[in-house]
Amino acid sequence: MKYVCLGFIDERKFHQIPQAEAQRMMEECFAYDDELRRGGHFLGGEALDTIRNAVTLRMKGGQVEVTDGPYAETKETLGGILLLEARDLNHAIALMSKHPGVKMGPFEIRPADETINQLLAQRDAAVAREKAAGRVLSTTREIAGPPGKIYDAFERPEQLAKWWGPKGFTNTFSQFEFRPGGRWVFVMHGPNGADYPNESVFRELQRNVKVVIEHVVEPRFTLTVTLAARGGGTHLTWDQAFESAEVAAKLRSICEPSNEENLDRLEAVLAGERR
Asked: What angle in degrees, to the nearest 10, is found between the helix axes of 147-155 and 245-274?
């Protein structure tokens, strides 16, 4: 279970401690946090700035009122938050009882509200999908032949060079490392005689299932190609994720037809192999 540990501190008392002693106490806290990390108990945490930089918001007379200082004028104020993984409350108490921070002030331990946290996680995921929807250009294609043949068309540079890019383009590869983290450096030659230098990195490779390529020069994007066997052929999904929805919108009129031409060329190369 997840527990939220609220650490309180008397700032005036802490600031009266000699600097060397305060540093030693902090190092002890950091060392114990590392023990919690090694045991899989430390999930995260945040230290808070001084209460002198705090403000408090209250609703008063239908208006939001802002005042300087913490919510409650108490001797000990919230100094930090630690997220803890423990079997139960007694286990959380046992772990935090050994924390050197207890010497500086009390800890309040509360179970996290997993029901509300699940709802928050769902909202995070929904917003992430909304953002992705605006910055991803997607297409699908049903291609004759098994996923392995299409994966081979990525893995073999001499074959990839034949179909990569829109209609009329050719390619010259100077570096091709088909492995996770491997670089792919090449020049695309347009039908108008213009050259277009490119550099990418293979981020994820799952044989016969997925190819993820990050284009690391402008325009920056990540291309995810997924392959799924379907009815003797392959269902291919081509997702080109740009850095923002604005960039995707700007390049949509160029990239969408180019991606379709790219897949047309892939199908033509595969068809030629079957002859």
From this structure: 110
Judged by DSSP in three states, 20 sits in: helix
C-beta separation of 267 from 143 below 8 A = yes
Q: Which residues of 139-148 are buried (b: 16+ CB within 10 A; e: fewer)?
A: eebebebebe
4 pLDDT above the threshold of 70: yes
Give tens-digit pLDDT for 77-124. 999 999 999 999 999 999 999 999 999 899 999 999 988 988 888 888
CA dist., res. 240 & res. 252, Å (int): 10
Given a cut of 90, is residue 257 above it in pLDDT? Answer: yes
- 2-112: CATH topology is Alpha-Beta Plaits (3.30.70)
The pTM of this model reads 0.55
Distance (Å, rounded) from C-alpha 219 to C-alpha 221? Answer: 6
Dist. CA 93–CA 3, nearest whole Å: 10
Between 3.90.226.10, 3.30.413.10, 3.30.530.20, 2.40.420.20, what CATH number should domain 129-274 receive?
Answer: 3.30.530.20
